[in-house]
Amino acid sequence: MTVLQNIKLAVDAVVFGYTSKEGLSVLLIKRKVAPFEKTWALPGGLVRDHESLEEAVERELKEETGISINYLEQLYTFGQPQRDPRNRVVSVAYYGLVKPDAFEIKANTDASDAAWFNVENLPPLAFDHRDILQQAIKRLQGKIIYEPIGFELLDKRFPFSELEKLYQTVLGRPLDRRNFKKKILKFGFLEETTEKQQLEGAGRPGNLYQFNEKKYFQLKKEGINFEL
Amino acid sequence: MTVLQNIKLAVDAVVFGYTSKEGLSVLLIKRKVAPFEKTWALPGGLVRDHESLEEAVERELKEETGISINYLEQLYTFGQPQRDPRNRVVSVAYYGLVKPDAFEIKANTDASDAAWFNVENLPPLAFDHRDILQQAIKRLQGKIIYEPIGFELLDKRFPFSELEKLYQTVLGRPLDRRNFKKKILKFGFLEETTEKQQLEGAGRPGNLYQFNEKKYFQLKKEGINFEL
DNA sequence: GCAATTCACGTAAATATTACGCAAATAATT
DNA sequence: AATTATTTGCGTAATATTTACGTGAATTGC
Q1: Mean pLDDT of residues grouped by 10 in chain A (228 residues)?
Q2: From A198, A202, A225, B14, which residue has the greatest number of CB atoms within 10 Å?
């Protein structure tokens, strides 16, 4: 039995950025063509015949937003028959994380039709992109408590309180400063540097920390068990 | 820019069954056509234009194995360009769980070219189905410790030791009988019945337990937190 | 009846989590 | 230049959870 199939395959990307000022943000593009013309949407597009799904995501991100990603993971595949009003399009959604520098650059070059939006304050989105985004946020929340992906969202060196704020914003609940620090340090994938924080206001300046990749990957293999 | 796309979309299913005698098994079919003719493979096939991905999985399962599934969840989408030697085929993999009765039936009707294989003793598999299966097992292990999906693999009523054995087989490590029971019962989604276990050997017969769906779904909404 | 097996229930010790206290270092304020 | 507000660093006591294991009861097989 031969089946004539007329389904298009696309990828979409939910790219998260974070700064302590602006909180958790997501990269969106404004659509130029129908359907949903001039509506904000997740970056993405059709997969080419000879590229992998990851290559497709990275290519589309570069084309549409110019951003370079340092963490990318498959989220879920959205395949409801009516999610695109024209044809059947099944989309493999990915989520990615970028460091603040990439974030800042994009926020300044306002030329393009790509922009960051705080996840608490989103515009109407095309297609089922709202669902995809919601699911990505849930996944991020789930992931961050058992794998320290938070580091992919912070600068190379950061004061401990930055990490704490990040966790609080992503999880949407307060954490005890002292217990959080103890718990995280216990794992041993963080190194204290001798460098001190550049202050932006009052308060005792804290030491900067950095991620010890070697220990992290070792722990990841053994299986980390967070719980915050 | 129009892209002419020539990618086929398929679904594959990793269906797990469990009995305390046989352990954790997986449902496979023997391929009738090239490539990988006469090789064992996961049930699956191309998605039709107007059906959802879940409908496609359920249809293929019915067609190829006659089995009815009571738990189905998307696993991952496998999209490497060369995974099918003929054309580009991207496959959305699902994993499912079936109760022992379905399992038994299939194990007896040896007529078809579908069969159960213990996960410890698998034949060579077609395409990248070995990878898919490995990933499904990992997912099952991850899932079972923070959501009691084990119930989808057991009879309606079961002695407590059955649940314990199931967890030990899936996780591949021993669990303390008494602590396991305390931990599970604490959640309150299990009900003790007055019925006693039918013995198959020596030993004091245990009470049968059953799953309290209402409490389970309530807990699921609140967010369960296992850890065994 | 006696050994072997499995179930039921319990408890002590070790670990982990939670909820805070307080001094030190800095900026802002008076 | 003293005082206040803010934030870091380092604790510790109380509570909760996990882990390890003991003992008696109910059954089958010999």
Answers
A1: 84 95 93 91 96 97 89 97 95 94 64 85 97 97 88 93 96 96 93 87 91 88 74
A2: B14
Q: How many domains does chain A have?
A: 2
Q: Can you tell me whether residue A16 is helix, strand or coil?
A: strand
Of B107, B126, B143, which residue constitutes the final position of a domain?
B143
How much of chain A is helix, strand and coil, in % rounded to 5? 35, 30, 40
In this structure, how many other beta carbons lie within 10 angstroms of the beta carbon of residue A158? 23
Sheet strand arrangement including B157-159:
B157-159, B207-211, B190-196
Give the nucleotide with minimal C1' distance to the Cα of B201. D28
Q: Is the Cβ–Cβ distance between B114 and B27 less than 8 Å?
A: yes
CA atoms within 13 A on the CB side of A12: 29
Which chain B positions have a beta carbon within 8 Å of A53's beta carbon?
77, 79, 90
CA distance to A3, A76, B53, B166, per residue, from B134 (Å): 29, 18, 21, 18
Domain that holds residue B205: 149-221
State whether A171 and A118 are in the same domain. no
Residue B131 and residue B82 in contact, taking contact as beta carbons nearer than 8 Å: no
